Amino acid sequence: MNILEFQKYKKLFNRKSLHLGNYALLFLVIFVLSISLLFKVPTDRSLITNALSKEGDSIDEGISIIPDKPLIVKGLSNDSIPTQSKTWTWSSDDVNAIYRYVINQNETHKFTDEKYGTTTTATQAFGDGIYYIHVQAQDSLKNVSLVETVYAVLDNTGPTITIFGFNPTSIYQYYTYIDEGAMAIDSIDSSHTTIHVTMENDVNTSIIGNYSVQYIASDKLGNISTSTRVVDVLVRPSTGSVNGMI
Q: H or E element: which one contains 4?
């Protein structure tokens, strides 16, 4: 047998030995899990990991470790009551789990290269409408949970004010100004159907000039909106007009 043939058989022997070692590791994992299921003994993922990684040995990528129970993200729920800011907090049964999350306005999210970390709380402090948080957990064996998604309704915009009548409008000097009023609706919180509108009126028809009528509305969360009507007081003509309005 020459040197080249010796090297060939040596590599073949080493490769078979490596495969046998992988099978032995796989048998060990199956045996431990079978015993735990048979006697209902809770398994510790870290013990299996340490057994497979003892003395620097690496776990073959072809071996899939099945956790003793599914990894689930807990502590999240939907919140349909409008709020100006929403804070979420989450956890799992695995105290060593790490997480990644995304907040957006999409009902679903597929994680790609987002990094895992130890953060277990997040806040959305601005914006309007429905915001979703998507959270995924990973344990020490790199088993991942399903993506947990919940939503919250945010409202950081004041009511929408509608001014009745003309804007701008005009009236002749010395006539009595009667404002046609305004109404307001909350475009985010549909349950808030009645919104009081305050009017500030500085129109003085005895003096010719430009005046403003300001309308102020506030929703249940304290979001404020304002709107203004411009009123021009004009010189009264020598002939009559209807109610002094133009």
A: helix 3-39
